[in-house]
Structure formats: C-alpha cells, structure tokens
Amino acid sequence: VQLVESGGGLVRPGGSLSLSCAGSGFTFSNYYMSWFRQAPGKEREFVAAIGWGGGRVDYADSVTGRFTISRDNAKNTVYLFANSLKPEDTAVYYCNAKLAGPSGVQYWGQGTQVTVSS
Question: Which ranges constitute the DSSP H helices of the chain?
Fold first, then answer.
C-alpha cells in the first residue's frame, strides 16, 4: 500500500498550490480520503475530506472558501487545490485513506511540505 503526495513547494502569500496524492495497493474507491497538515511544534490537524464518490466534502473552518478537495477514482488520486494561501498555512500536508466501517483500517502518505512566505 502506498500513498504518495506531490505538489508542495514555496509560494508567496495570496498564491496558490495544487497538491496530489496517488494511491496504490488498495481499492481506492472504497476509501474516504482526507488531507491533514502539521506545522512545526503543532499537532497534526484536519484540513479537508471527501467521500467515496466525491459527492460529500468537508473542510476545516480555517480553509473553508480557500481550499477545494476533489478525487478521481479512475486515477486513484485525490487533490487539494489551495488558494489565497497565508503564512499560517505553512505545514507538511499529509494524505489519509480510511476504509469505511468499524475496521479502522487507514493509511498515511509521507507528506509534502508547503511553505507560504514572501
């Protein structure tokens, strides 16, 4: 099983980034996909999530209206489009896949660094 994030980098305040997370080794369409982030010295926090078919999405208050999550089950990929970035968005962004039901099975990617700075 692998989740591989990409698309991080350095961006100026007000700028945009597009993150991708490609999954392999599991049935991607059966998993609820989420993005989390962890800033230095802080706990990992929820950013956004999307249901199996993409019809249900959820966002943290801090990113609502600025970030958009989407998925392409044919490509086993989940995306996070981050707009109007702020310095406080600086963090390592992680992809998470969680299987529906009580099993608790979930997988994490290795993370991709996003730095918002002038």
Answer: none
